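CHAIN AND CONFORMATION:
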Amino acid sequence: MYWKVGFAGEHTPRKILLVSSTSKSAEEIEMSLRSVFIHTLLCTPRGRKVVLCEKMTEQRKFRELVVSILLEKLEVDSVEFVPALVPPVFACCRDNDLSGLMIDVGYSETCVLPVYSSHPLIHAMSVADVGTRKVHECLAT
C-alpha cells in the first residue's frame, strides 16, 4: 500500500508514497520507481545499491517483478532484501539489551515479532489478516 523511500543513514523516509501494488502494470511500476529515483531521491538509479524492506508475506510475483525492473530496466547494481520488522528492532535495541514485541500494523495485515536480548525471533513471528484496511472500511460506512 505504501512505499517509504530514502537513503541509508537517514532517520526518517524522505517521502511516503501511496501505491497499490495489486492494480499496477509492470510499466506503471517502472515509471513509479523511476520517478522515485529522479524526483524524490534526486539521483539516477544506475549503479545504486537498493535495499528493500519488505513484508515477509509479500506476494512472490510482485517481488520478482520489482527486482526484475530494478536490475534489468533501471540497472541498479544490487538488490538486498531485509524483513520489514528487522530495521526497527536494530534502531531501538542496538545499544541496549532489550526484550519485547515489535508490532507492525500494516494496511492489510498486522505482524508481531518477539525480540529477546535485542535479537528478533523471526521463526516466532505471527501474522494476522487484519490491518488498517478494516479501519478504512469502517470509516467509509
Observations:
- Residues 68 and 74 are 9 Å apart (CA to CA).
- The mean pLDDT is 81.
- The radius of gyration is 16 Å.
- The chain has two domains: 1-83, 85-140.
